[in-house]
Amino acid sequence: MERGESARYGLGEVRVSEQSFMSQVYFWMAMGLGLTGLVAGWMAVNPALVMGLARNMGLFLVLVLVQLGLVFWLSAAIMRISVMAATIGFSVYATLNGILLSGIFLIYTGASIAATFFVTAGMFGAVSVYGFVTKRDLTSVGSFCFMGLIGIILASIVNIFLRSPALYWVITYAGIAVFLGLTVSDTQKLKRIHANGFQSGEVLKKLALLGALALYLDFINLFLLLLRIFGRRR
Fold first, then answer.
1. What are phi and psi of 156, to 5 degrees?
2. Which residues lie below 8 Å from residue 64, measured CB to CB, with a gap of 6+?
3. How many CB atoms lie within 10 A of CB 31?
4. pTM for the whole structure
């Protein structure tokens, strides 16, 4: 009898801990999105800054490269650095993204940006919940979507030269499907990471930050693709 109660208690502990871990992930993701939005909004009310960045391609490319470097650095070194360093790295990345995305406020109306954000949040929330609760193994979905992402990147590069409206929209809708699939897969992957027993405080915080970065990237890319559809140009 006591053994059965102990088992039930242990299961309850795992369930609460799992929810706590995912709460950390979503908290840091939300913080990153909030920081990106604040920085982009601040840049938008100073159009001269946005235009200056758009005209200085050298600086723009440097910021993009720094962003990419931060993602690779965090992914590779997360277990070797401190929680503080990981937090700062994630925050710097979100800040740089806000700077680079500020131009959307000069292209699209504020109302359409806000509406697209809420549409993105609804779609992201629905598929992320599915990824968390489903018992189906989504590993193959993640692998397929990753290959699809590589194809989309290559097609986007090709379309820089072709400038084909048809290919542009194929990339847009395919990209939406890919990032929805990645969101589902990444959510389930985070659940599995927790189930593997990484439950010490510092390790769990680092993994939560890394998971937040993955979901943040899924959300941002999904938002930008949906903005192509729902965004109203000024």
1. -65, -40
2. 100
3. 16
4. 0.90
Identify the three-state secondary structure at position 233.
Answer: strand
**pLDDT greater than 60 at residue 5:** no
- Whether the CB-CB separation of 216 and 88 falls below 8 Å is answered with no
Instruction: Give the separation between CA 19 and CA 208, rounded to whole angstroms.
Output: 12
Q: Supply 152's token pair.
A: 């989309």
* The residue to which tokens 């979503």 are assigned: 26
pLDDT at 197 over 90: no
C-alpha 215/C-alpha 23 separation (Å) is 13
Can you spell out the DSSP letters for 202-214?
A: HHHHHHHHHHHHH
Q: Which two tokens stand for residue 27?
A: 């908290």
- DSSP letters, 7-67, are HHHHHHHHHHHHHHHHHHHHHHHHHHHHHHHHHHHHHHT-HHHHHHHHH-HHHHHHHHHHH
Nearest CA to 53 out of 96, 99, 93, 92 is that of 99
Domain extent listing, the chain: 2-230
For residue 101, give the nearest of 53, 55, 30 by alpha carbon: 53
Q: What letter would DSSP give residue 193? A: H
Query: For the chain, first and last CA: distance in Å?
Result: 69
Give one word for 163, left, alpha or beta, with left for phi > 0 and alpha for psi -120 to 50. left
SS3 108: strand
Chain segment 60-108, per-residue pLDDT in tens:
999 999 999 999 999 999 989 999 999 999 999 999 999 999 999 989 9
CA–CA separation, 67 and 92 (whole Å): 9
